[in-house]
Structure formats: C-alpha cells, structure tokens
Write a sequence for this structure.
C-alpha cells in the first residue's frame, strides 16, 4: 500500500531525527555495543549518519605519493587530491560502513553528499584550500523519503556546487548542516570516549565557561578540545542538543543516551542566550 502525503507527514512528526557524525578514525573501531545502541535509538528516532575518512585518505595519498597539506585544519584539495577523496569517502569508507550496518541488521543506504545534490556547496574562495566547500543547502526531501522507508542514510562528506563541481566538505560542518536542514532533535559526535571526563568520571553538566576553564586546567586535552569546540559551535536556537558519545561502548539504552550532551538554552528574554553542556 502506498502511503499518502498525510501519512508520511504523520510519520515524520512521530519520529524525530538524530544525526550522527562518525570520524574516519573511529569507523573501524566501532563495537557491537555501538550497533546495539544504534538499534535501540532507531526504535523511536530516524537516524542519519555523516562520516569522514581522514586516515584512509591519508594512507591512500601516501601510497600514491600525492603531497597534501592542511590549512587551518582543512585539507588543501587539488584536482588530484579530490579524486582520492571522492574514491575513498564515496567508495571504501562509505561501503564498509554500510556493510557493517547490514551485518548488524540495520537497513542502510550509502550515499555521497553529491548524490541527489544532498550537500549543495559553495567553494571557499580564499585561494588557499582548492576544492574545499561550505554547505549552502541540504536537499532534505530525498533523505526524508529514505527515512520514512526505514533506512539509515549513510552520507560521505562530498558536496557539489551549482555547476556540478565536486567539493571536499569537512564532515563536522556537513553533519551540522544536515542536522539543521532536517530540523534534527539531536546531533551526536561519536568519539573513542564516553564524553567529557574528569578523573575518569563523566561530567554531566557544564557551562561553556566551565568547558573553557577545564581546557585551561588541561582536564580537557588533545583531540577532545576540537570535538568540544565543534559541538558548541554547532548549537543554535534551532539545534539545541549536540551530544558527545562513544563508539566503543554503549551510547544508548532504554533509559536514554549515555555521554555528555551540549544543550542550547535561553534563560529569558532579558538574559543573553547561553550554551550549556549537560547530560541528556
């Protein structure tokens, strides 16, 4: 039986969207607990996954003796580098991820951001980065269609401009754009730890000022610093929950999510907007 537009709208309203970002370094480390948590999450939510693939891209570039460099944290992308990015992200990494989901009985469809012009992008015009883009629009209808059929779209962070030029898009940025485009309830950054930790214990409630203090005190260090900063920067009045969770242990059970969430809150009209880190 074909679902009517009203039925599709009802289904969309009943299940909120959760966008999950997985970096290339964690994909090969995802455990059975991660996929079990994903299955639990999917019972009551639509799920979209955005992924990068930095380590695999670097390995392939090295193997082909192609030189590359980073400018302000973004990979400078020449024609030659772009070919490798497209091949690795849209091919090896994406299909490996989809296969893992299938083996764990989760229906998934692998896509590049250029498929169906999902990630419409504009090239960053600074002359330093080459074919690197920023997302200007997310084509949500295709994603909603897949979600309503029970699929998890798995999207590699490759965008395309209005002329059909492919662009390398930072996966964190792509995830934030997709979350906003789908009016997601939550955006999850999957890492190799449960969240923000102090003395081995999960910190459940933090203001942004406290986060900055913990960075100064070297409690938040290393790779967690850009994760926290990226999570905070993704917050807005329309995306008020960004979450840092683990890909190597359970991040969701019947009681809810396990980890550290970052919540955007407005106390009152008289007060300034405040971004708060708290446990969901």
């Amino acid at each position: 039986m074909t679902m009517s537009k009203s039925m599709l709208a009802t289904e969309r309203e009943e299940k909120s969207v959760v966008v999950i970002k997985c970096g290339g370094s964690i994909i090969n480390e995802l455990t059975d607990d991660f996929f079990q948590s994903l299955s639990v999450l999917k019972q009551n939510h639509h799920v979209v996954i955005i992924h990068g693939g930095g380590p695999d891209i670097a390995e392939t570039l090295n193997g082909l003796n192609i030189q590359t460099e980073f400018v302000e944290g973004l990979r400078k992308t020449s024609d030659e580098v772009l070919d490798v990015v497209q091949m690795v992200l849209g091919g090896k990494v994406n299909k490996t991820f989809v296969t893992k989901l299938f083996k764990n009985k989760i229906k998934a469809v692998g896509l590049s951001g250029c498929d169906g012009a999902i990630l419409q992008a504009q090239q960053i015009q600074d002359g330093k980065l080459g074919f690197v883009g920023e997302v200007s629009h997310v084509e949500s209808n295709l994603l909603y269609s897949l979600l309503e059929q029970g699929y998890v779209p798995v999207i590699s962070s490759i965008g395309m401009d209005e002329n059909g030029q492919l662009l390398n898009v930072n996966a964190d940025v792509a995830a934030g754009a997709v979350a906003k485009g789908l009016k997601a309830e939550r955006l999850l950054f999957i890492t190799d730890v449960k969240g923000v930790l102090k003395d081995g214990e999960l910190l459940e409630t933090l203001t942004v000022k406290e986060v900055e203090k913990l960075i100064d005190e070297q409690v938040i260090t290393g790779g967690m610093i850009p994760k926290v900063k990226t999570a905070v920067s993704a917050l807005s009045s329309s995306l008020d929950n960004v979450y840092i969770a683990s890909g190597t242990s359970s991040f969701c059970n019947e009681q809810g999510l396990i980890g550290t969430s970052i919540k955007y809150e407005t106390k009152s009209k008289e007060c300034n907007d405040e971004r708060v880190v708290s446990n969901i």
Summary: Residues 1-8 have pLDDT under 50 and may be disordered. The first helix runs from residue 5 to 14.
